Please model this.
Amino acid sequence: MRKCTFLLPLHDNNGRPFPVRYGNKIKRELADTFGGYSIMGRCDGCCIMADGSLARDTTEIIVVCVPDYPSVDLLRKLVSGYAETLEQESIYFEVSSAVVEFVAPPATEARRYKIDKLEHAAIEACSVALPNDQVTE
Model:
């Protein structure tokens, strides 16, 4: 599995908070597609925009563990769609080489089976065409 991290902006380019429904829809899509996600907190950052201006933003750090490529590519496409919907020049996206495991108590083979099914479902989802309007009102 691959650990993928992206920074989801909480405000538009004028500093106004995004509607909560955007974040809720994104998080539901991540859970449905990959079986879950983790919010690792919030962080403040800045970057130089294409026009040379300095943009500051507060973002949520979102981690999604995916079964490997092509699931990483699917997540990258989803994040690209979020950037378009939220009118961002880009969204920070990181793919880690960390080894990710879900460790269950010894007596829960049924849970391991469920995790295997979720991994398989995420791989299957990669073959589904993504709509152009991934996040709408």
